[in-house]
Design brief:
Length: 182
């Protein structure tokens, strides 16, 4: 497809999308991971990104290697703490759903992702903090069948954001369901 065709297709999907998505990133320290997360946020229309803990700086040139210019397209704010990020997300009307392989988490395909949802992801080394797990409205995990401990945080973020969008799109149907160009 030509770039203009992709732009037209993206506009069509934007018109079919009402639910608001946001994201809390807690102590994701690797710039390439944050850059990849920012690119996914820009692609899937995340309205706001809260950076909690010691997350990398979106303006770090290494972030730009994977963000490819998309950092400027995502409204991101530095939250003083995880608790502040959680209350800011709630004050903006989001249900906070933290992604973690943790006690009480439900599999992603049955997670409460309808409506305005703020997903939250944790650090590469130790995952979501106890404060984030306790403060979220719900916990969800991406089922794994390989002999692997966890997904890369940027990949987990992309899977969950895409699932949140897929839920709304699957229930609405319409012209967007047709193959491209038909
Ligand atoms: C690399 S993982 C952290 C792994 C860490 N070693 C641990 O044991 O908690 C970083 C983040 O990615 C997300 N993540 C990775 N795999 C996941 C999965 N299968 N389900 C849900 N979240 C996942 C979580 O938000 C997690 O905090």
């Amino acid at each position: 497809m030509r770039p203009t065709d992709v732009k037209r297709l993206n506009r069509q999907w934007r018109r079919s999308t009402e639910g608001r998505l946001a994201l809390i990133v807690e102590s994701v320290t690797q710039p390439y991971n944050l850059g990849s997360i920012l690119r996914t946020c820009a692609t899937l229309g995340v309205d706001r990104l809260w950076l909690a803990g010691n997350s990398a700086d979106p303006l770090d040139p290494k972030v730009g290697k994977t963000a490819l210019g998309t950092a400027a397209k995502v409204d991101h704010v530095r939250a003083g703490s995880t608790a502040e990020a959680l209350s800011a997300a709630r004050a903006d009307g989001y249900r906070v759903v933290a992604l973690e392989l943790a006690t009480g988490a439900v599999p992603l395909h049955v997670a409460p992702l309808e409506g305005d949802v703020c997903l939250a992801v944790g650090a590469e080394d130790h995952g979501c903090s106890p404060a984030l797990l306790a403060g979220a409205d719900a916990l969800t995990y991406i089922p794994q069948i390989g002999r692997v401990g966890s997904l890369n945080v940027a990949v987990a973020t992309a899977i969950a954001l895409a699932e949140a969008r897929r839920r709304e799109w699957a229930s609405s149907g319409g012209e967007t369901d047709a193959p491209i160009g038909k």
